[in-house]
Amino acid sequence: MAGRIATVGVYGFDAEVFLRTLRAAGVEVVLDVRQRRGVRGPQYAWANSRRLQAALAEAGIGYQHHKELAPTTALRQAQYRADAELGEGKRSRTQLSPEYERLYTEQILDQAELDPIAELARQTLPALLCVERDPEACHRSLIAARLESEFGLEAFHLRPD
After folding, report:
1. pLDDT along the chain (161 residues), means of 10
2. Predicted pLDDT at 118
């Protein structure tokens, strides 16, 4: 069995729709790949680590933090510079910069031990979680692509309506 892995962001969801989307997709465990597990703004307070973990537990969905897959502060700063050049912000970003993709791949992804995630995806349906609405604008898409190419997992992306 090859396995599947989902990705999901926080932006564009409220807590109820987020949980409903995970359940509808059959997600059984969320793999949080954020460095700092908080989201600014009162509309996203539900996605801060403790609240999110409590809501997931109540919904019967597991939670794991994979900080080793989170971009470093320096990497995020590189993306912010590219965003500024394009006149985009974190919440309006449409794509990752080529520099960010290269640096994230070299510094994080190439060093990461992805076997445990691939094995988990063969047994259950995990979802990589970060904040950006669109996977193309987030490092979770790079992780998912690596899991597809190296382990044959089918990656798909959950989005708000």
Report:
1. 92 96 98 87 92 97 97 90 82 86 96 97 97 93 98 96 80
2. 98
For 117, the token pair is 């995630």
The tokens describing 138, both together, are 């987030």
Count of beta carbons in the 10 Å neighbourhood of residue 73? 10
Count Cβ neighbours within 10 Å for each residue of 135-154 and write b for 16 or more, e otherwise. Answer: bebbbbbbbbbbbeeebebe
pTM: 0.93
Residue 1 has a pLDDT of 59
Task: Work out whether the CA dihedral 140, 145, 148, 149 comes out positive or negative.
Answer: negative
What is the arrangement of strands in the sheet containing 154-158, beginning at the earlier edge strand? 62-65, 29-32, 126-129, 4-8, 154-158
Task: Give the separation between CA 42 and CA 68, rounded to whole angstroms.
Answer: 27
Please give the Cα distance from 91 to 137 (Å, whole number). Answer: 9
State the pLDDT at residue 11.
93
∠ CA 76-114-96 to the nearest 5 degrees? 30
Instruction: Indicate the DSSP class of residue 33.
Output: -
Q: Quick one: which of 155, 147, 142, 146 has its CA closest to 103?
A: 142
d(CA 107, CA 98): 14
